[in-house]
Design brief:
- The longest helix is centred in the middle third of the chain and has 26 residues, at about 90-115.
- Helix 1 (about 1-10) packs across helix 2 (about 15-35), helix 3 (about 40-60) runs antiparallel to helix 4 (about 65-90) and helix 5 (about 90-115) packs antiparallel against helix 6 (about 125-140).
- Helices cover about 80% and strands about 0% of the residues.
- The chain is an all-alpha fold and about 240 residues long.
């Protein structure tokens, strides 16, 4: 009675008894929810359930099997739950799974464009771009650990400054690594552009100690400066200044 009186006092005088009843139900539902924890993921599951319920009704109306619909609903429900859990306990796994979805969508779109348009589709370049994007994502997710591991392994392998070689062999390895990376950077490879500065200075530092400030080191120094400025000009679009 008190609830009905409260609702009635909030409504215009022309309100019908049916409107009052609806108001009572609304206020009662609101009061029931007070003090309860909000389950924020519930609407997502309800929306998914509604979507597949409608799909099931359509399939039944057409005389089709419900098994594929039920299987897909189970799959989507499990994915929704797993994404929510991983967002809390394993965000890296979630991000990589989302990238896998994005990659699949991109490749499907590319296939569609290939079949339905005259646009030239270079599959090799697209795959290369996706690999770079995946590598950049992993680098971000793992806080730079991927590139650090690659760098450590490279330094320990033949050609690295920590390899088990004699001084001349180490110098030759560092030079070969630097020249290879520079060639890739000069050709516009984004990953090589990111490495060339570090590899060139590693080579220069070793060459400086190896040649002890001689004319040989000066020639190496000038050549490295020219190479780095050429890459800088390629990236920034500015003319490379003279060496010195």
């Amino acid at each position: 009675a008190n609830m009905r009186t409260a609702v009635t006092s909030m409504l215009p005088a022309t309100t019908t008894l049916q409107d009052v009843a609806k108001g009572v139900v609304f206020v009662t539902d609101v009061y029931d929810e007070l003090g309860k924890t909000v389950i924020s993921i519930k609407p997502d599951f309800e929306a998914l359930e509604k979507q597949f319920k409608e799909m099931g009704q359509t399939a039944s109306a057409l005389g089709l099997s419900l098994e594929p619909v039920e299987a897909e609903q189970k799959k989507k429900t499990a994915r929704l739950a797993q994404d929510y859990i991983d967002d809390l306990v394993d965000p890296i796994a979630l991000a990589l799974r989302q990238f896998a979805d994005e990659k699949a969508t991109i490749l499907a779109n590319v296939d569609y464009l290939r079949e339905h348009t005259d646009v030239a589709v270079d599959a090799a370049r697209i795959n290369e771009a996706l690999l770079r994007k995946e590598a950049a994502l992993k680098e971000q997710l793992y806080g730079g650990a991927v590139s650090q591991l690659e760098d450590a392994i490279k330094r320990l392998m033949p050609g690295g400054n920590l390899a088990n070689l004699d001084p001349s062999g180490t110098l030759a390895g560092l030079e070969a690594s630097y020249r290879s990376t520079y060639a890739q950077a000069a050709a516009g490879d984004a990953a090589a552009i990111g490495r060339v500065a570090a590899e060139s200075t590693t080579y220069a530092e070793y060459a400086k100690s190896y040649f002890a400030g001689s004319a040989e080191y000066e020639a190496i120094r000038q050549q490295i400066i020219e190479s780095l400025r050429a890459v800088q000009a390629e990236v920034t679009g500015a003319a490379a200044p003279a060496t010195g």
